[in-house]
Every structure is written in C-alpha cells, then in structure tokens.
Design brief:
Elements lengths: L5 H17 L14 H12 L5 H8 L3 H13 L3 E5 L7 E5 L1 H19 L3 H17 L16
Antiparallel strand pairs: 1-2
Helix pairs in contact: 3-4
Amino acid sequence: MPAPTHSQIASIRRFNRFYTREVGVLRKNFLDTPWSLAEMRVLFEIANGADVTASDIGKALDLDAAYLSRMLQKFEKDGLVSRTRSKADARVSFLGLSVRGKKQFAAANERQVAQTKNRRKDQWSSQQSVAFVWGHVFAPTKNQGKISGLRRT
C-alpha cells in the first residue's frame, strides 16, 4: 500500500481537529460529569463488559497501567466501581459498576445519546458521511475498539 500523500495527511488531521472539538474530547469534564473522556470510556467498558479486568481495559484502550490503576482507585474511592476476585485465579479481579456507578453512568450515557441526537441538524448529513467513511477506511486494528462483551473462561 502506498504511503499517504501530504494532502491526505492534512485531510486526516483536519478531520481529527474537527471531530475532537465536536465530541468534546478537549473538555476537562465530559458530558457535565466529573470525569474526563478517558475516564468515561473506562466506565463504559466496565458497564458494558462481562468479567472485564483492568488488564483487558488497559490493552484494549492502550492505557498506561499506572494511569489506569490510579483511575480505578479513584472510581473505587468514589463508590463507582467494585472488584470481584476470580474463583479460578485469585490473582485476577473482575471489575463492575456499583449501584451508584450504574446510576451515574446511565445518566451520563443518556446525555451522550441526547447530545448525539441533537447535533446540529444541518451538519448531520456531512458528519454522518465522514464518520462512515472514516470507520470503513480506517477500520480498527488489533487491540483497538471497544472490548465490551468480553467473556473470560
């Protein structure tokens, strides 16, 4: 496959600048929550996964282990996340949202759905087209994308 041209690289970078602003990546708090986008993504994976471990999340989202560990400790301290030790391997802990975590995550997730639905209608067609092309041209590679639904045996 030939290397991308300067023009193609410029287009990708222009798209990245547009999209990061559009979805709120650059804001300190995402969706009017106390969490950053990275924290919200980790909560999403915990909420939608089955038998998810910190290691699973770290690998799938390419997060530094120390950064993820601090994030999970904060979630536990705030009463959002709990750990359940594996019966098969005592060294492994599965992550889950507490009742409080489920409630707070659900509220933030509902805001995300509403925000997406209410996106400027005049731009939706072009945004939809760009997102479709982006998702199909630059398909996720190994260890990228959501890990939700992982099952451990």
